[in-house]
Input
Amino acid sequence: MSIEENYQKAKAEFAAFGVDTEEAMKKVKKIPISVHCWQGDDVLGFDGANSLEGGIQTTGNYPYRATGKDQLMSDIKEAVSMMPGTKRLNLHASYAILGKDAGKVDRDQYKFEYFKPWVDFVKGLGLDGIDFNPTFFSHKNVKNNLTLSSPDEKIRHFWIEHGKRCLEISSELGKAFGKPCMMNIWIPDGYKDIPADRLSPRLRYRDSLDEMLADKDWDHNYVMPTLESKVFGIGLESMTVGSSEFCQNYAATRHITCLMDMGHYHPTEVVSDKISSMLCFYDKVALHISRPVRWDSDHVVLFDDELKEVAKEIIRNHAEDKVVIGLDYFDASINRIAAWVTGERSMEKALLYAATLPNEELAKLQNEANFTKLLVMQERVKMLPFSDVWNEYLRRQGMDENYYEEAMRYEKEIAPSRK
Ligand code: RNT
Ligand code: ZN
Output
């Protein structure tokens, strides 16, 4: 039977549960996914770093890492061609295309011009826009693992200036696409061992953010600042300045948005359970979709139970416009294109899965306290022929399940020109 025929059969099976698979596909296709540029080059960027610092790590030495803009753009083009749905590109400041200014300007002097080629590139690909991140890591001015919370005023000010430049750039990126650019702030700042003072670094971080965000040169309509918390980093095990409480309270009092990374909480905490709490108090919440394996390891995202729970929280709460989805994983041990596509497709799959559940029926059972039937039904719907809907979703976007073969073909093509 063809994909279409299988789908027609599946459609009827879902309809028997009150689920409209046509509606589900339509809805999911419109949800923007911000695809991170940094899976392509192991988070190194173009502005001089040759190692990844800041408590994050890529492991593996799979060949053909993209170096430079041409290779990374080529890889992004290849990867997004196999990613269904609406995509945005998520850039870090370290991916500035400095041209003749290379070696002459530092991150406190970055400007929109260095990202203009990215705008043209993303428009050429027909993507939905660009999101942005100041890069507070892998740089000589990260002194003693500190940036915006540093007691060294010169260091702290360098990073405040970087943040201001990034807000200006983000605002221009927003204007270029006519919609807000999410600018996510994450700093690695923290201490390896038990600190003697936890308050001062946090007060400095608060004041640095205030100084950055109070700058006049950015436009709320085009830039949406988000703040990402983290529980620990490698070499920063005892204390992180930007803890969850710090970031949530900062965001609430300054009217910006929290970003929750799936790898940034204690191991038994799950982001899926946090989304609804945030939605009680915030207009929006942003996510970094990642997969922590025993630690914040940023493994390639899979279609697993926690991702399904995250997607359910978005879909059944009708929060597609409130939850901003960004991908954040980086695996250097396997083909990077296949890694990229696998993660993005997992997110798409999870959203489509959530959209093909009889969510209202299930909620009704909960409200009626019919927990026996709820349990039984939740198990039953797992066996619906979801794969047929997924295959049809891909087919309608000119894609299929055989992206491994395409990733290998591309690898053969680019291999001779890469180390
Ligand atoms: C690090 C954070 C952060 C980075 C990216 C590269 O733990 O998750 O979001 O992964 O900014
Ligand atoms: Zn993250």
Summary: The pocket of zinc ion (ligand 2) is lined by residues 228, 261, 288, 328 (CB under 6 Å). The first strand starts at residue 32 and ends at 36.
